[in-house]
Design brief:
By secondary structure, this protein is of the alpha+beta class. 26% of the residues lie in helices and 25% in strands. It has 3 helices and 6 strands; from the N terminus they run E-E-H-E-H-E-H-E-E.
């Protein structure tokens, strides 16, 4: 993230964003919280003895278009396999999937037939 120096584990075992001057950033947006969480997931998986797949639910819900693009460029580095669970309003497939073009093995859509019945459909690419 431009403008930030890094992250620091705080006294509550949470993460604090450090500004370029090394001082804690006191107020964080919901999007910044999302970026911090993704950074932590990436760091933990990189340091793990055995790297596992990463599953993420609504990872872009609070991000603007610029940050969404940067996160899509970062996602392939999280793990060898990443599964994203997104809703139709969260991403624009034509725009937002461009950074991972050629790296997506499958897209699936949940089609709600009734309030109690759904069907999983593989989307053609």
């Amino acid at each position: 993230m431009p403008g930030y120096a890094g992250l620091q584990i705080n006294n509550s075992y949470g993460l604090t964003i450090l500004g370029r001057n090394g001082e804690p950033v006191p107020v964080r947006s919901a999007g910044a919280e999302q970026v911090v969480a993704l950074s932590l997931i990436g760091a933990l998986n990189r340091l793990a003895t055995l790297r596992g797949p990463v599953f993420m639910d609504t990872p872009f819900g609070r991000l603007d278009t610029r940050h969404r693009t940067r996160i899509m460029e970062f996602i392939p580095t999280l793990a060898d396999q990443v599964a994203l669970l997104v809703h139709s309003g969260e991403i624009d497939p034509e725009r937002d999937l461009a950074p991972v073009q050629g790296r997506v093995s499958a897209e699936w859509e949940i089609h709600h037939e009734t309030s109690t019945r759904s069907e999983l459909l593989r989307r053609a690419r």
